[in-house]
């Protein structure tokens, strides 16, 4: 078995001071660059910009589109089969997709007291790009790594290392994007207030690094559509946390309001 591992080109690595670290080969760099561009850079940057032009609530409302994009991409690329309509689980899958779409559309019908509709439109397109990027990330992992006959299937044994290298390229793209502020001489953009250090550490270590590692691990053991099927829970968690952490209150839905959002009074329906 040792000789077989030595003959296997996927198990041979260039000697490094840290032999326990699996290094990507030159012909694999495009895979990690693509994963970093979609999952880490595109997903997070578009999400942050989307929040800037809208609100955190609206940004979370768009997240149910991630499983919809994922299912559509998986079906188009023949990664998954159409749900069997003669079985209960097939109808359950279709119902889940329809509920995700319906919930997102319902919240998009919200009447806002804010007159700045142009920014909301820009933010909406950014959030659509955010959700599409995440769907592409999960599907690309499945196609190129976690399928039994995938070209880079040997990386499936290293889900955390796979995530780490994708994260490295995502961080590289983010670093390159900051050159915009360097060339404009806006050094204040790099100043981190002391009160932001805690939330920033949480965002990096928990909601980013840990979550991406868990997503990759789950993607290894189940289908891409199941991995992203839990995304709509972000809306529920955001609404609940907004109530208890931010003191936002909720009122009942009426036919006239159709889910009116009151930004000035922090009231939702």
Sheet of most strands: 2 strands, parallel
Supply the number of helical segments: 11
- First CA to last CA: what distance? 62 Å
Q: Roughly what fraction of the amino acids lie in strands? A: under 5%
Rg over CA atoms: 21 Å
Strand order of the largest sheet: 1-2
One letter per element, helices H and strands E, the order comes to HHHHHHHHHHHEE
Low-confidence stretches: 4-8, 11-18, 258-269
Q: How much helicity do the residues have?
A: 55-70%
In quaternary terms, these chains amount to single chain
Instruction: Average the pLDDT over all residues and give the rounded result.
Output: 79
* Total strands: 2
Q: Which structural class matches the secondary elements? A: mainly alpha
Shape label: globular
Features:
269 residues; two-stranded parallel sheet; 2 strands; 11 helices; mainly alpha; disordered C terminus
Describe it:
With 269 residues, the protein is mostly helical. 64% of the residues lie in helices and 1% in strands. The chain is globular. The relative contact order is 0.15.
Per-chain topology:
Layout: H1 2-7, H2 29-53, H3 56-62, H4 65-76, H5 88-108, H6 117-146, H7 159-177, H8 179-184, H9 194-221, H10 224-228, H11 233-246, E1 249-250, E2 267-268
Parallel strand pairs: 1-2
Helix pairs in contact: 2-3, 2-6, 2-7, 3-11, 4-5, 4-6, 6-9, 7-9
Structure in a nutshell:
With 269 residues, the chain is an all-alpha fold.
């Amino acid at each position: 078995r040792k000789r077989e591992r030595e003959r296997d080109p996927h198990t041979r690595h260039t000697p490094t001071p840290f032999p326990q670290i699996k290094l990507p080969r030159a012909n694999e760099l495009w895979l990690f660059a693509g994963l970093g561009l979609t999952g880490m850079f595109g997903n997070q940057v578009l999400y942050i910009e989307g929040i800037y032009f809208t609100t955190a609530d609206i940004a979370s409302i768009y997240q149910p589109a991630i499983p919809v994009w994922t299912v559509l991409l998986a079906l188009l690329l023949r990664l998954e089969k159409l749900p069997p309509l003669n079985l209960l689980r097939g109808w359950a899958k279709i119902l889940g997709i329809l509920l995700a779409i319906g919930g997102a559309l319902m919240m998009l019908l919200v009447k806002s007291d804010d007159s700045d509709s142009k920014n909301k439109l820009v933010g909406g397109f950014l959030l659509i790009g955010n959700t599409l990027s995440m769907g592409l990330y999960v599907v690309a992992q499945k196609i190129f790594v976690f399928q039994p006959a995938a070209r880079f299937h040997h990386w499936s044994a290293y889900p955390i290392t796979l995530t780490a290298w994708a994260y490295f390229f995502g961080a590289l793209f983010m670093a390159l994007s900051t050159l915009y502020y360097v060339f404009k001489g806006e050094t204040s953009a790099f100043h981190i207030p002391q009160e932001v250090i805690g939330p920033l550490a949480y965002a990096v270590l928990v909601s980013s690094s840990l979550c991406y590692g868990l997503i990759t691990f789950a993607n290894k053991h189940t289908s891409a559509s199941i991995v992203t099927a839990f995304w709509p829970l972000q809306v529920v968690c955001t609404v609940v946390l907004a109530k208890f952490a931010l003191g936002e209150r909720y009122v009942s839905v009426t036919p006239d309001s159709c889910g009116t959002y009151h930004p000035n009074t922090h009231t939702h329906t």
